């Protein structure tokens, strides 16, 4: 169904590792079924911090970070985001889901 929206942002609060797994599983399915939609994916809170940089590996090209101080739990500044994006980019592509999941949970 067409909504007129130019993009989609999925932002959820991660309470535990299962929430992270559920978000990554959803991301894989959604990215495949909506390949041309502009989208952003993230989990809020400290546990979800690295999900903010994992989206591009899953087909979610947009990332979100504040221009100044963090406005919500888990937000990264520009330097931290650049580091996290680099780390995510270098994860094993052959087992991407598991690699991302393990990397995200390393806090």
What report would you give on this structure?
The protein has 107 residues and is α+β, with helices and mostly antiparallel strands. It has four helices and two strands; from the N terminus they run βαβααα. A two-stranded parallel sheet has the order 1-2. Helix 1 (17-33) runs antiparallel to helix 4 (96-105). The radius of gyration is 13 Å and the shape is globular. The N and C termini lie far apart (39 Å). The model has no long low-confidence stretch (mean pLDDT 88).
Quick take:
The chain has helices at residues 17-33, 51-54, 78-89, 96-105, and strands at residues 7-13, 38-44. With 107 residues, it is of the alpha+beta class. Strands 1-2 form a two-stranded parallel ribbon.
Topology:
Elements: E1 7-13, H1 17-33, E2 38-44, H2 51-54, H3 78-89, H4 96-105
Parallel strand pairs: 1-2
Helix pairs in contact: 1-4
Number of H- or I-type helical stretches = 4
- Strand order in space, largest sheet: 1-2
Roughly what percent helix?
40-55%
Overall residue-averaged pLDDT value: 88
Determine the strand fraction and express it as a percent band.
5-15%
Structural class per helix/strand content?
alpha+beta
Number of strands: 2
Tell me the Rg in angstroms.
13 Å
Order of helices and strands: EHEHHH
The N- and C-terminal alpha carbons lie at a distance of 39 Å
Q: Mind summarizing the main beta sheet?
A: 2 strands, parallel
In one word, what is the shape? globular
Spans of at least 5 consecutive residues with low confidence? none
């Amino acid at each position: 169904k067409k909504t007129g929206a130019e993009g989609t942002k999925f932002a959820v609060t991660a309470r535990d590792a299962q929430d992270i797994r559920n978000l990554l599983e959803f991301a894989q399915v959604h990215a495949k079924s909506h390949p041309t939609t502009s989208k952003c994916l993230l989990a809020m809170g400290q546990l979800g911090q690295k999900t903010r940089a994992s989206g591009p590996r899953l087909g979610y090209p947009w990332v979100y970070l504040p221009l100044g101080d963090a406005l919500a739990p888990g937000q990264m500044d520009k330097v931290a985001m650049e580091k996290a994006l680099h780390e995510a980019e270098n994860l094993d592509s052959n087992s991407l889901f598991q690699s991302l999941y393990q990397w995200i949970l390393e806090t």
